[in-house]
Amino acid sequence: MKIAYSIVGLSLFGLSVLSAQHQTMPAGMSHEEHLRQLQKEEALKRRGALAMGFDQEGTVHHFLLQPRGGAIVVSSKNVQDVETVAQIRMHLREIAASFGDGLFDKPVATHGELPPGAAVMADRKDRISYRYDDRHGGGAVVMETDDRETLNALHAFLRYQIVEHKTGDPLTPQ
Question: Which of 8, 37, 63, 173 is at a distance of 20 to 30 A from 71, taking alpha carbons?
Fold first, then answer.
């Protein structure tokens, strides 16, 4: 009897370890499609860590659409981790400056492609204001414009980030 309980216990333990390491395959997706999705997500995290200078697993990203623009908000999961907080803030200051110059090399390095809206944002850089703000445990890049076409591009850029980073943020301005 003890052997049977041991086998059941070990089986349940093995299943819990596997489920912790492997995402559940979405309904209607083939095993091959799911593996490609997992590989894409892992590559995004790896490229993101190189481009941003901090571990993606230790941070939380939000991409917020607002009526006049939006914001990129990043914070450390451990607000006491002063090194990660400093890295986040340095990265976001760089993003505000480079986006203001019309340069989108970091999003390209992270995603392996130019995100939608970025080309218009680069062409119309003089119509967007970029501001860096300190936030608790991290920081934010706040972007604003009064130009409708530029606003549409900025929102397309942020929606792409929401979907790619799977943040769950609203896809409409709040």
Answer: 37
